[in-house]
Amino acid sequence: MFRNQYDTDVTTWSPTGRLFQVEYAMEAVKQGSAAIGLRSRSHVVLACVNKAQSELSSHQRKIFKVDDHIGVAIAGLTADGRVLSRYMRSESINHSFTYESPLPVGRLVVHLADKAQVCTQRSWKRPYGVGLLVGGLDESGAHLYYNCPSGNYFEYQAFAIGSRSQAAKTYLERKFESFQESSKEDLIKDAIMAIRETLQGETLKSSLCTVSVLGVDEPFHFLDQESIQKVIDTFEKVPEEEEDAGEGEAEPEAAPGAAGTGEQGGSGDQDVAPMEI
Amino acid sequence: MTTFTVPIDNGDSVRIAEEESQRTLYPYVTGTSIVAIKYKDGVLMASDMGGSYGSTLRYKNIERVKAIGKHSLLGASGEISDFQEILRYLDELTLNDNMWDDGNSLGPKEIHNYLTRVMYNRRNKFNPLWNTLVLGGVKNGKSYLGMVSMIGVSFEDDHVATGFGNHLARPILRDEWHADLSFEDGVKLLEKCMRVLLYRDRSAINKLQIAKITEEGVTVSQPYSLKTFWEFSSFHNPTAGAEGSW
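YS: structure for the whole thing
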């Protein structure tokens, strides 16, 4: 996108009916590291790539528990994401307190979307620069939603956001039809495989990703490193055509240092294709 | 005259008097007991149709049990106008719930907890809704029966009663209630309780309704009367054992 005379304020329309500031906010989501969500009839899996500012620092938290039955994965300005997660937790707990009953996730995402919309219609505000993948339960089962800085929200069977998410989406598009009836284990495996797609060449290790699960009769929780590594081991043993030669053998821990070129993951995402989300 | 000193700006005594008169101090038109039980298919709730004005049995056509949404029944004893206010709050609540139109709906547990919050908060402001509420319902096959008092005391049980019902009906229910009562047995049990209340509660009238809620929905019976028996021999000469009394 190029600069133009209609992109200074969020309250200025362009002659073609666009709000550029909102679209720029959606660009910020694409710069964040990848986050992926998938759901079956009874479970939702959220997974993300762990990105650290530098080798010295720890990685940023991108998946948050909102309640026992709702979790959210974010991509974009993590500060905005943290604030919105706090809002979601607050809404959820207030509902629980008044009604002693879990807030249906469909209603939470509408509240969230309405909050985002306000920021697209006030001259003294700016849109939130974060995309949220909200997974949760309500009376009709498990749901996955994507909340956009524009104030729109969509329901998905599976979705990926952030940098190099198109690779993950391609993988998910091939397999999504089976997700509704998938078992929890298969869903987790598909999530980690989708994460692998976004790494594009880097060896997949459990330290590089965070995975969380929630389901009917199963409160939101994170998978520990061992469980993730176990799942990785089941498919890293089978060399596939897309994998680089020499990678992905039967070693339980991936060999350090030999991860090949393109070791940095985080900075310089100029190779992100300007795709539509 | 009992007054609470509400700590507000002391300079304005007129305002203090106005604030006092805005709070509920005592009830005026009241309903008497509600008795409710869980049975095989859901919940049964019985109440009479009387509204007393002090010791006068003034109103004889008051429905004290109402359907709330698709899944619940609310019965109230105590101040009738406060009950109507509560019905308005619940109306708003169920309307907003319906407007979501998203396949989720408020069940009896949610409504019970909402009412508990309302009653407790009013009590904390020294302005209670002068009712004891009974909330029964069925959702997704599960029956629910609970009670909230005017000070916000709230609990669930297999059978509940308010007011005099607590003292006269609950003992009968404790002895004779069991799980999976049939509809006929449930009604018989409730009628037994209501008959005792009719004999012994001065504010009860002989015109009652029994409401039923199941997975299918709510049915409130037409008003009817219980058969009573007054020909006990001791009633013929009531002062036989204590000459000189009346």
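YS: worth flagging: The helical segments of chain A are 20-31, 78-99, 105-118, 165-175, 184-199, 225-236.
IM: good catch. Also Chain A has one domain: 28-233.
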